[in-house]
Amino acid sequence: MPKDILSVIQANMNTFSKGQKLIARFILDSYDKAAFMTASRLGKTVNVSESTVVRFAAELGYDGYPAMQKALQEMIRNKLTSIQRIEVSNDRIGNQDILSMVMQSDMEKIRLSLEEVDREQFRQAVEAIVSARRIYILGVRSATALASFLGFYFNLIFENVVLMHTTSVSEVFEQMLHIGPKDVIIGISFPRYSARTVKAMRFARDRGARVVAITDSETSPLASIATHTLMAKSDMASFVDSLVAPLSLVNALIVAIGRRKNSDLSRTFGQLEQIWSEYQVYENPESDPGMA
């Protein structure tokens, strides 16, 4: 099935029934909204039955409406502007309770990610990271939070971590000047994908480094570059990127590597506890006057 579903619809317009043409025209004109509608809602919007919508998906060669809907979503997610995101999410949320809707959506993304994550890719990524000479971590814009979280814990586990801070494209390559075949770069990006991250990962791959991508789908531009791809579902809640499932995946990666470095990690945290205590890094509950 071609990735560009709109081209398929346009090319087959003359073969559709009257009802299917109504669906087709709506998708061509408002694909950003259609991608997040149920079959029932799409049918009501264009005044056709839900079964007509389902048959339309089959006519295009999909194994059901959800498959067609997924194709639409994957096609548009990297193209939506922030304003379009707000419009689409307002339409999706409607009069629902926002707190429940967003948190339930996040839980669903974690469930789907758990079902679809490739365990062998995960294992291979762990092996590559543990055996690397240097570990580079890159995430920009909203993915900066994930990169910082990963970098914080990796710096406790390893002595060879480079958490890349970037304000320009040239700065990215300057920090990667010495990257080579014994190194690993972990690139993190979700729609809308960062061109800076893609370029950096391509540079690292061309230098012979192992490339680990943390992204959302096989159609992500990071996936085609990566040696190992770890996928987690993301979603948009208005202009906000929902990165709950990616954070859970990052957390699992940290724990898996911590298990591999268990003895070293025990010594490291033994030293850290002494430092934290000596320099009073954390509040001591026993010294709290309110607890006397």
UniProtKB/TrEMBL annotation:
Residues 125-263 form the SIS domain. Residues 3-79 form the HTH rpiR-type domain. Pfam families: HTH_6, SIS. The chain crosses the membrane at residues 135-158, 236-257. Signal peptide: none annotated. PROSITE patterns: HTH_RPIR (PS51071), SIS (PS51464). Keywords: DNA-binding, Membrane, Transcription, Transcription regulation, Transmembrane, Transmembrane helix. One of its GO terms (biological process) is carbohydrate derivative metabolic process. It comes from the Bacteria. GO terms for molecular function: carbohydrate derivative binding; DNA binding; DNA-binding transcription factor activity. This is MurR/RpiR family transcriptional regulator. It comes from Candidatus Flavonifractor intestinipullorum. The lineage of its organism: Bacteria, Bacillati, Bacillota, Clostridia, Eubacteriales.
